[in-house]
Every structure is written in structure tokens, then in C-alpha cells.
Specification:
By secondary structure, the chain is an all-alpha fold. It has one domain: Rhodopsin 7-helix transmembrane proteins (Rhopdopsin 7-helix transmembrane proteins). 75% of the residues lie in helices and 3% in strands. The protein contains 13 helices and three strands; from the N terminus they run αβαααβααααβααααα. It has a three-stranded mixed sheet with strand order 2-1-3. The longest helix is centred in the C-terminal third of the chain and has 35 residues. The chain is globular.
């Protein structure tokens, strides 16, 4: 991205959570604990799904990659947020802002597509169990995960490049805690109506497209579960996708509210709170959601801890 003379030395200032009355130290410790919990919880899932022999299944392969995406999601925003909470100058360079925006959006798109892929995995497992091992081969799973990353990294490039070329001659104060796309383009002194429409339709295609895949998958899954004659069978089938469904509802509920609504309904303080949910809270809760509601994960965690105890003793 080529910088103009006007943006070369430009800096933005974060307004942050100005509506909160907590002390900086309390806010710093609060978000630091969340970040540590996010990194540790998702790292544990990555390690367990890679090392435990009983978890060498497509579902856990996708779960391990979702944990990697969740670590990336929070890492794009939380370290800088922790820095700005304590720093007197709550600024970010123009280049840093554009890079943060790019990687945040790229990881967000990747997570949307990965959640859609995971719903397809559950659809095949429940609706076509006899073909599951043939359809969800390791090569196919790897290709789908790489596809999610490639779509994420490439799809957000055009709008971010356009934003990097905008003139910013008005206020340089971003009413947010990171460089999200909407509060940044609002600072431009040029006409951004067409850009806003382009971003809106791009977001709608990505979010509603992936969410539609998830909805269609779960409609078929629900039909298959209802056709099971025994209550035990129904409960077992539903338990395999309950964690994923919980994660989907939290994540898509917030991003649909955030990015697919009329601009006239926008409230920046509400937007910041909503952003905390899908960019920080959901990635942090995913390890708990997938661990506490999954007996195989809990068993794998116990086996891993037991092995470590045995290794230390002998």
C-alpha cells in the first residue's frame, strides 16, 4: 500500500471506552486476564487436538484451527488495547491502523467461513454417517481450512486498500478501541458513500452467505435428529453439534447486528460494546463452550493431565 504525503506521518487517537468510569488499572487487569485466559484456553485445545489419539477426527481438526483463529482474533486488538489503557498518548500510526484493520477483518472473515465449514462437517456426520470418512478426508479438511484463510486474507484486501488511499483532514480521533472499518472511514474528508455501500454489500455477502450455509446445514441436521426413534440417539446426535451451535449464535448474532443494519441505527458506544462480544468474549468463551459440553474433550484433557503427572513422577 502506497502512502501519500498526507498520510505518511498521520496518527490516530483512540477514544476507547470513554463511557466507562473504571480506573485504568482495573480495566488493564480485566482485559489482561481475558487475554491470558484466551491464549491459554485456546492453546490447550490446539495441543490436545493435535496430540490425543482419540481426537484425530475432522471435527477436532476444525476445532483446533478455530482456536488458532480465536487467538489471532484477540491478538489483533487486545495487546494494543492494553497498551493504550495505560499510555498517556493513546495513538496509533496510520500504517499500524491500516494493518490492524486488515488483519482484524481477515481473521473475522476466516472465522465466519470456518464456522460454516464446521456446520457442514456436522451435517455430513449426522445426515450421511456412512459417507463421512470418505467425504471428510484429511486432504479435504486441510483444503477447506486453507480455503477459509485464503478467502479471509484476500476478500478484505480491496476495501482496506481503498481506505488506505483516503484523505484524512478532519478529526483524527477514532471513537473506538481499535481501528474498525466504520469509525475510521467516518474521519475521511472525502465522499465515502459509495465506499460504505461497497463495504455493506461485501459484509452482507460474507456474513449472510456463511450464515445461510450454517442454517441450511442445521435444518437438515434437525430433520435427521427428529427422525431418530430413541431419545438416547437424539440426545447423542444433538450433543455433537450443541457446542458449535452455541458458538455460532453468539458470534453471528453480534456481527449481524454490528455490520448489517442501517447506518442511521448506528450508536458508537453500543458498537464498541458489541465489538467486545464478537472480537474478545466469543473467542475467549469458545474453549469453555467446546470443553464443558464435550465428553471427548474432557476425557482427552484428563488423559493429558494424567500423562504429565506420570512423566513428572517417573
Amino acid at each position: 500500500m502506497l502512502l501519500t504525503n498526507q498520510t505518511e506521518n498521520l496518527e490516530f487517537q483512540f477514544l476507547g471506552f470513554s463511557f466507562l468510569v473504571t480506573s485504568p488499572i482495573f480495566s488493564f487487569l480485566f482485559f489482561l486476564v481475558i487475554y491470558i485466559f484466551n491464549i491459554s484456553g485456546n492453546t490447550v485445545i490446539i495441543i490436545i487436538t493435535r496430540l490425543d489419539a482419540y481426537l484425530q477426527k475432522p471435527m477436532y481438526f476444525f476445532l483446533g484451527n478455530l482456536s488458532l483463529v480465536d487467538i489471532s482474533f484477540t491478538t489483533t486488538t487486545l495487546p494494543k488495547l492494553l497498551n493504550t489503557i495505560l499510555a498517556q498518548e493513546k495513538t496509533i500510526s496510520f500504517v499500524g491502523c491500516i494493518m490492524q484493520m486488515y488483519f482484524f477483518l481477515a481473521v473475522g472473515v476466516t472465522e465466519s467461513f470456518l464456522l460454516a465449514v464446521m456446520s457442514y462437517d456436522r451435517y455430513v456426520a449426522i445426515c450421511n454417517p456412512l459417507r463421512y470418512t470418505m467425504v471428510m478426508k484429511q486432504e479435504a479438511c486441510t483444503f477447506m481450512v486453507l480455503g477459509c484463510w485464503m478467502i479471509g486474507l484476500l476478500s478484505v484486501l480491496p476495501p482496506v486498500v481503498i481506505i488506505s488511499k483516503l484523505p484524512f483532514c478532519q478529526s483524527h480521533v477514532i471513537n473506538h478501541f481499535f481501528c474498525d472499518i466504520s469509525p475510521v472511514i467516518q474521519l475521511s474528508c472525502s465522499d465515502v458513500h459509495n465506499l460504505e455501500m461497497f463495504i455493506f454489500f461485501t459484509a452482507a455477502m460474507v456474513i449472510l452467505g456463511t450464515f445461510s450455509v450454517i442454517v441450511i446445514s442445521y435444518v437438515h441436521i434437525l430433520r435427521s435428529i427428529l427422525s431418530i426413534t430413541t431419545q438416547t440417539g437424539k440426545k447423542k446426535a444433538f450433543s455433537t453439534c450443541a457446542s458449535h451451535l452455541t458458538s455460532v449464535l453468539i458470534y453471528f448474532g453480534t456481527i449481524i447486528f454490528m455490520y448489517i443494519r442501517p447506518k442511521s441505527k448506528s450508536n458508537l458506544d453500543l458498537d464498541k460494546t458489541t465489538s467486545v462480544f464478537y472480537s474478545i468474549v466469543t473467542p475467549t468463551l469458545n474453549p469453555l463452550i467446546y470443553s464443558f459440553r464435550n465428553n471427548e474433550m474432557k476425557s482427552a484433557l484428563r488423559r493429558t493431565v494424567l500423562k504429565q503427572i506420570i512423566v513428572q513422577k517417573f
